[in-house]
Amino acid sequence: MDSMREGAALHDSRQSGALLRYSNLAVAFHWLVVVLLLTQLWLGFMFHRVLDEGPLRVEYFTWHKTVGATILVLVLIRLAYRLINPPPPYPEEMPDWRRQAAVWSHRLLYLMTIIVPLTGLIAVSDRGPTTGLAGGIQLPTVPGISEATGDLSGDVHMFLVWATIALVVLHVAAAFYEQFLARCGVAYRMPPLRPSHHQPVVIGQGAKGSPREG
Ligand code: HEM
């Protein structure tokens, strides 16, 4: 029923020149991951750089692992949803190089939000068969990890954190570029960003026959 409605919306939008945006669920996933990622960076920075050894540091580390595991699960669910519901097609006037840049930076962001938590998990896997999360939950670690491999994974984790920060800075800069300079209807795909002029915006994700990006 929903996809019929979205299919009709897509058809109508092509007729009326309306802008196409992500579905409400995709938007909720996006902003939830943003909030968790920012919280995660703060937790990581606090226990890694600010706090001394002690119970408070352990508590921050426990929350860091908990939020990391949550991001991993959420991103996997988000990806599954995205595979079933293709994103709205880009506006026709968007140049191909910008389209490719957007597609590949999104792919990298998805990859990072999966491998950064995994390298974190491997980094603590030499310390025992499980690792403690908030609420006393015991998360199984990866078996057969030596101390040297654990240390190496910790270093890779740190490197990828900085790479993710750089990628996010680039992504946000691109969003602002699209919103304020290019204005070809790309930033508006992700509410609450919306056009300053009165052009209608309709859901264009998951519509039957909607072409994939790229
Ligand atoms: C203030 C911060 C942010 C703004 C303003 C913003 C804005 C946007 C906009 C406008 C889009 C749609 C672009 C398009 O479809 O080409 C988008 C998509 C996306 N954003 Fe962000 N974003 C922000 C932070 C983040 C962060 C921190 C991540 C890290 C994971 C992220 C990951 C993504 C991904 C993966 C997509 C593609 C979604 C998909 O196609 O499934 N964003 N963002």
What is the compact description of this entry?
This protein is mainly alpha-helical and 214 residues long. The chain is 64% helix and 6% strand.
Bound molecules: protoporphyrin IX containing FE
The chain-level mean pLDDT equals 90
The name of the CATH architecture is Up-down Bundle
**Total beta strand runs:** 4
Shape: elongated
Task: Report the sheet-strand fraction.
Answer: 5-15%
Oligomer: single chain
Find the CATH superfamily: Transmembrane di-heme cytochromes, Chain C
Q: How large is the count of helical segments?
A: 5
Which CATH class applies here? Mainly Alpha
**Biggest β-sheet, characterized?**
2 strands, parallel
- Beginning-to-end CA distance, first to last residue: 27 Å
SS content category: mainly alpha
Q: What is the H/E order?
A: HEHHHEEHE
For the structure shown, list the relevant keywords.
Fumarate Reductase Cytochrome B subunit, two-stranded parallel ribbon, 64% helix, disordered N terminus, binds protoporphyrin IX containing FE
